[in-house]
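Exercise 7b. C-alpha cells:
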C-alpha cells in the first residue's frame, strides 16, 4: 500500500532532461466473479508491448525502454485474479522504481510515458479510504474493529458482566422488577463506557469514519450517549448479531455503507459547488476558472469526471497553466509547453498542495459545467477588486 508521503514524493517528481521519461503503469485485476479476468492480464501485457514498440520505432530514450521492458516482465507474471491492483512508477534515469499494491478500484489498466507520473487514479485514494472503525455493540458486549484499505484488525473488545441474579425470577415479581432496573443500569453503564472508548478514539484521531453495528432496539440508547465528535464521524449503521458476525463480514458490510455514504457526499459536494459558482460564491466551474482559482490558492477541492482530459499549456519557467493554447506565458512571457492532458500537471499540483480531488462518474450536471469544477476555501475576487479600487 502507498502512504501519503510516498504519493507526495511521486507528485514532486518531474523529468529534467528531454530524453528522461517518467513511466507509470496501473494494473487492474478483474473481480473473481469476472470470467474475463485472464484476458485483463493479457490486455495489460499488450498495452505494455504496444507502448514499447512505439518507443522503439520513435527511437526515444533507451532508459524509458528499459523501464517499459521491466514492466512488461512484471505484467507477464501478473494474474487477472489477484486481489490487488498494482501501480508501478519508474524513471531509470533518476534511479527510481516504485511498486505498490492498491485496492481494486474503478480505474482500468493503463500505461503512461510522460514528464511526470500519472497520479489521477491515486490522488483520491486517501479520501475514498478513510481510516475506519466499526463499533459492534449489544447490551452486554462491545467489539471495535479497525479497517484501513484491506487491513482488518480488532482493536479491542469488552463485556458487560451481566449480574447472575438478574436471571432469577425473584419472588412475587418484586425481585424481578428490581433486577430488571438493575440490569437497565448495567446496560446504560455499558453503553456509557462504549461511548467513552469511541470518544477517546476520536480524540486521538484513531479513526476518520465510524460505522456502528447494533440492533435497532439498542441504537437510541447508545446514540444518546455518544459525544458529538463521535457522532459526526458516523457514516452509517447496520443491524447485526455480534455473536455470529465475523470481523471480515463486519468489514465488508461497513465498506458497503462507506461507499454509499461517500457517493452521497460527493453528489452533495458537486451540487454545493455548482450552486456556489452560480451565485459567484465559493465555487467555480470550467477549466479556465479552476486553473485560475488553483493558482490563487483559493481551492479546497477539485471535482472532475473520472475520464476528464483537456489540452492546455504549461509555462516552462513559472509553471503557469493556461487552457488557451498560447506559445508564450501570459504571466512571465517565457515559452510554454503543450500538455496533452492538463491533469498531468494539475493532479500532482493538487497532491503537493493538499487539495481534495474528487473523481465523479459522468453525468448531466457535470457535462453542463465542462466536467470540471472546484469548491473554494475563499474567493479572492472581491478583495482584489477592493485593492484595485484603492490603487
Ligand atoms: Zn510563466
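Sequence design result:
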Amino acid at each position: 500500500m502507498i502512504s501519503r508521503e510516498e504519493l507526495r514524493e511521486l507528485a514532486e517528481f518531474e523529468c529534467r532532461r528531454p530524453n528522461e521519461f517518467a513511466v507509470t503503469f496501473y494494473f487492474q485485476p478483474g473481480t473473481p466473479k469476472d470470467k474475463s479476468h485472464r484476458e485483463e492480464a493479457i490486455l495489460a501485457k499488450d498495452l505494455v508491448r504496444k507502448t514499447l514498440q512505439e518507443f522503439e520505432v520513435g527511437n526515444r530514450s533507451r532508459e524509458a525502454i528499459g523501464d517499459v521492458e521491466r514492466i512488461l516482465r512484471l505484467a507477464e507474471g501478473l494474474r487477472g485474479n489477484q486481489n490487488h491492483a498494482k501501480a508501478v512508477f519508474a524513471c531509470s534515469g533518476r534511479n527510481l522504481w516504485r511498486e505498490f499494491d492498491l485496492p481494486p478500484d474503478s480505474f482500468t489498466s493503463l500505461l503512461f510515458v510522460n514528464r511526470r507520473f500519472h497520479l489521477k487514479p491515486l490522488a483520491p485514494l486517501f479520501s475514498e479510504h478513510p481510516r475506519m472503525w466499526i463499533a459492534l455493540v449489544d447490551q452486554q458486549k462491545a467489539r471495535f474493529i479497525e479497517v484501513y484499505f484491506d487491513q482488518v484488525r480488532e482493536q479491542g473488545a469488552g463485556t458487560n458482566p451481566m449480574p447472575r441474579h438478574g436471571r432469577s425470577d425473584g419472588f412475587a415479581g418484586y425481585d424481578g422488577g428490581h433486577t430488571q432496573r438493575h440490569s437497565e443500569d448495567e446496560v446504560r453503564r455499558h453503553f456509557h463506557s462504549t461511548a467513552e472508548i469511541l470518544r477517546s478514539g476520536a480524540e486521538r484521531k484513531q479513526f476518520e469514519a465510524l460505522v456502528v453495528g447494533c440492533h435497532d432496539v439498542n441504537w437510541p440508547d447508545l446514540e444518546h450517549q455518544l459525544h458529538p465528535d463521535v457522532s459526526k464521524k458516523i457514516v452509517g449503521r447496520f443491524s447485526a448479531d455480534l455473536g455470529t458476525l465475523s470481523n471480515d463480514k463486519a468489514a465488508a458490510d461497513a465498506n458497503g455503507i462507506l461507499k454509499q455514504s461517500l457517493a452521497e457526499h460527493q453528489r452533495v459536494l458537486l451540487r454545493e459547488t455548482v450552486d456556489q459558482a452560480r451565485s459567484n460564491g465559493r465555487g467555480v466551474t470550467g477549466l479556465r476558472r479552476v486553473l485560475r482559482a488553483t493558482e490563487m490558492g483559493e481551492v479546497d477541492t477539485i471535482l472532475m469526471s473520472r475520464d476528464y482530459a483537456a489540452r492546455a499549456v504549461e509555462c516552462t519557467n513559472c509553471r503557469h497553466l493556461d487552457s488557451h493554447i498560447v506559445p508564450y506565458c501570459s504571466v512571465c512571457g517565457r515559452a510554454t509547453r503543450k500538455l496533452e492532458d492538463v491533469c498531468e500537471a494539475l493532479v500532482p499540483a493538487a497532491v503537493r498542495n493538499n487539495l481534495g480531488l474528487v473523481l465523479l462518474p459522468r453525468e448531466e450536471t457535470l457535462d453542463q459545467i465542462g466536467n470540471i469544477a472546484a469548491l473554494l476555501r475563499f474567493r479572492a475576487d472581491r478583495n482584489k477588486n477592493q485593492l484595485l479600487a484603492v490603487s
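Instructor comment: Residues 156 and 266 are 32 Å apart (CA to CA). The chain is about 40% helix and 25% strand.
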